[in-house]
Write a structure and sequence with these properties.
This protein is of the alpha+beta class. The chain contains 3 helices and 5 strands. The chain is globular.
Length: 98
């Protein structure tokens, strides 16, 4: 099981807590985790990545194992600590302001 930490606005939308778990078949990649997350919580479709292109939304970032994975390829393997459930895959809403 893959642990996924959601930002507060997505927790409210999905009506869940801060951390959820999803099951990923095959290689553990950003794409696989997000596919599993959207399958488990259909209301999140289009909030994290674009409906058509499946690219990350501009104000959403991905972190794991103290690394910013936002600009990694969607099919690149996630760190082993995420794949085995020791560390969460974190989805963070970017903070902007002046």
């Amino acid at each position: 099981m893959i642990r996924v930490v959601l930002p507060p606005h997505l927790q409210i939308l999905a009506r869940t807590g801060r951390e959820v778990t999803v099951e990923v078949e095959g290689p553990v990649t950003q794409r696989a985790v997000l596919d599993a997350l959207e399958a488990a919580y259909p209301v999140l479709r289009g909030t994290i990545r674009d409906h058509i292109t499946k690219r990350r939304r501009p104000l959403v970032r991905f972190f794991a194992c103290e690394q910013d994975l936002s600009h990694e390829e969607p099919d690149a393997p996630l760190p082993e600590a995420v794949a085995c459930g020791d560390e969460p895959f974190m989805i963070v809403g970017a903070i902007a302001g002046g």
